[in-house]
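Methods, example record. To illustrate the input and output format used throughout this study, we show the complete record for Cytochrome b5. The sequence lines were provided to the predictor; the line carrying structure tokens was produced by it.
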Amino acid sequence: MLSLKTDVASLAFYGLLLLPLLYVLRKYTTSSPSQPSATENSNELTGSKEEEKPKTIMSAANTSLQPPKDDEFTPERLKDYDGSQPGKPIYVAIKGTIFDVTAKVEMYGPGKSYNIFAGKDGSRGLGMSSLKPEDAVPDYSTLDENDMKVLDDWHSFFSKRYNIVGRVVDPNLSEAVRNMNNLQLKS
Ligand code: HEM
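The corresponding predicted structure is encoded as:
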């Protein structure tokens, strides 16, 4: 009888000790997901009027883009726009679409991180997330499904930020890639 009482007492004692631990565990296991959806916006819960900022380190989209141009550029002509000629715009081509990235000379200018993509179509390297010169080529038909998706995401990223100044006409590209580029233009 006495031992039963002691057991109940020690159970209650240890149970009380466990309570704070359970509280902490619950707090950390039921916190909100890292990417809240529109309906799970924490502002709705708190009633805060503050705008939820998008969780990205990428620059914001450009809201005043010009209508896209359809000028034709050979790879040779496109090379003039690699940032090496002072006063000339800087162009980057993705899947044959040429974007004017002059506003980001600090990234695409000579000697800068992404100059490898300037004055050319370096689609394969963009898809592979590679900055190697040998990968910055226009033929992206070698990419696997995941890298193809990465490349498409870059095309969409650039489309929202930079003016389209034309398209690459490259007779040396395989017909398959030229067809894919044309499809991209129409989408
Ligand atoms: C340690 C690795 C890297 C870091 C820390 C990094 C960092 C960044 C940051 C912060 C931006 C945003 C710039 C902005 O939007 O203002 C950016 C943009 C970009 N990154 Fe990287 N990056 C890395 C590797 C790469 C690699 C391997 C590639 C190759 C494809 C790449 C290609 C790009 C491109 C094309 C942009 C878009 C620049 C623009 O026009 O705004 N990055 N990077």
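Annotations derived from this record:
The first strand starts at residue 72 and ends at 73.
The longest helix spans residues 2-29.
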